[in-house]
Amino acid sequence: MNTNSTNTTWTHSTWTDFLIAEGATIESTGIRFDAPDAGLTPAATVVVPLVNLGIIRSRGEDSAPFLHNLFSNDVKNLSAEGAQWTSFNSPKGRMLASILLWKEADGHALVMSADLLPALLKKLSMYVLRSKVKLADDGAETALVGVSGSEAGQVLARAGLAVPAAAPTQTVTGDTRCIRLDDNNFLVALPVGEAPQAFGALLAAGATKAGTAAWQLAMVRAGVPLITVPTQEEFVAQMLNYEIIGGVSFQKGCYPGQEIVARTQYLGKLKKRMYRVRIADGAEPLPGADVFAPEFGDQSAGKLVNVAPSPEGGFEALAVMQTRCAEAGDVHLGSLAGPRLSFLDLPYALP
Prior knowledge:
Layout lengths: L12 H9 L2 E4 L2 E4 L12 E4 L3 E7 L3 H6 L14 E7 L5 E10 L2 E7 L3 H9 L8 E4 L4 E7 L3 H7 L10 E5 L2 E5 L4 E7 L3 H10 L3 E2 L2 H11 L35 H9 L5 E8 L10 E3 L9 E8 L5 E8 H6 L3 E2 L7 E4 L7
Parallel strand pairs: 3-13
Antiparallel strand pairs: 1-2, 3-9, 4-7, 4-8, 5-6, 6-7, 9-12, 10-11, 11-12, 14-17, 14-19, 15-16, 15-18, 16-17
């Protein structure tokens, strides 16, 4: 349902009220602005309120070992300036959540798709037991903003923020954290009360406001998947290229699903990988939609992970599929008679 008033799920009304005054419509899946999204103009540097993401704070002296024992990446050895992709998996090695994690003075921050947060917080809390750690939904206190584009670093600097020199690392300016995801994409985390002023400063520094679709397109082009409810428990980490983007440590100890993830890495050839594709026509497809190829007939050959409108028309998507179907190049959405997918480059090489 679309609304120009705060949804009951939005608790930080100061921030959302400001965005509505800026011409935003807040929807169940994200945000859009009255003007066409500048993020669909390739040359634009955009600032995007990331209301489609949620944040959990893990605080306490046991935060690092607690998270280390649950996630696919090495939390214990994460530096004070560090940030990392990581995942929380089922015992069968299927991803329950893709997470951006960074270190803080009193613990860690975890960013994931907002539709996963309530169930994920409940599930993680079940593991706390005697650990000296407290987990909490921090969405009412912290706003998340994405800045994307070839001049994103310069825009952040002109807005008065310290910019990380390398990815993935973070810098802190006052109460504001800036996390560099890659050359062109940054996530900013700051107190809700400071978000309107910071948003205005980024616009004054040369960014253009844009909606969720612009950030989704940036992440699709970066080859960074976001697990949402429709794709939970569908993929082992390597199917999402997660070891390529630095989301898996193969040197750390056990965690839920670790045996499956390790076996996938070291035994046999991985049968599925994630690819970037274009869908030229039709209605906007949804995450979790099946793709089909002649080699598999009426059986699904894979699924869409994330989808975004493309400035060239149609849609761009990340899709996990059988590698031999991708190599053959004849893959269709929805059925063998559905729109044919064309394959686009990822910013990294597949093994």
